[in-house]
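Issue: copy button drops trailing tokens. Both records pasted manually instead:
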Amino acid sequence: MRAVLDACVLYPTVLREILIGVAQAGLYQPLWSERILEEWARATVKLGPGAETVARGEVVALRRAWPRAAVPKTAEEDARLWLPDPGDRHVLATAIVGKAEVIVTFNLSDFPGRVLQQHGLRAEHPDPFLLNLYNSAPAAVAGAVEQVRATAERLSGAPQPVRGLLKRAGLPRLGKALERRG
């Protein structure tokens, strides 16, 4: 499966690391455009001094690790598309040009189902997206989550229970499923 990761799901570190970890496990192929990566990096400015620099370093690392994830510029495609927010047309264009099946985003209302269906696409919140992958490959998703949890615990110096960490990352259903797994 090919999935476009919108800037809003790349922005939160825990979520981004889980999404990339699951992709590294071979459960899907992530896609993005330079504009999506740029939106993510610019959005980090509000986190304070130095945050954008860190994000740009992470962008470089993602480009290196995932060279096939980059979908070429889609300006021509953008021009013929309609979405409620014209600023999101580039995301839809990336999905079309990249032959994606899904756009992973928190902003579901920006990607109406009737519009996406015309292009053989759907938009999905990251929680059900990851939960569906977990249901098909529990060990791989649990492993990716555990790696992120352990890193968060090491960096924070405080315990990071999985369910709480995932709830803060906008993944409450995945957290509940992992907690039930034990």
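Record 2 (pasted manually too):
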Amino acid sequence: CADRGVCRQLTAPYSPQQNGVLERRNQIVVGTARCLLKAKGVPNEFWGEAVTTVVHLLNCAPTKAVRGMTPYEAWQGDKPAVSYFRTFGCVAHA
């Protein structure tokens, strides 16, 4: 991780106050996943897929943390492909 620019920061156990940014990010993920499920009327059994979708979307979207690029681009070095994106909850045939 150090080679990729990820630095390790230790916090006291059981102290969510020290994880303010992470706690807010988790709230964003949970809230957005809940909205995806409710908006499309998808059963709660798909909670895991909704959370995975939200995290993937957030990694492909611009953020203030890395200026001028997406988190995916900062980690991988190239722009993320988004041509395969579809509406969450749309009908799909296998």
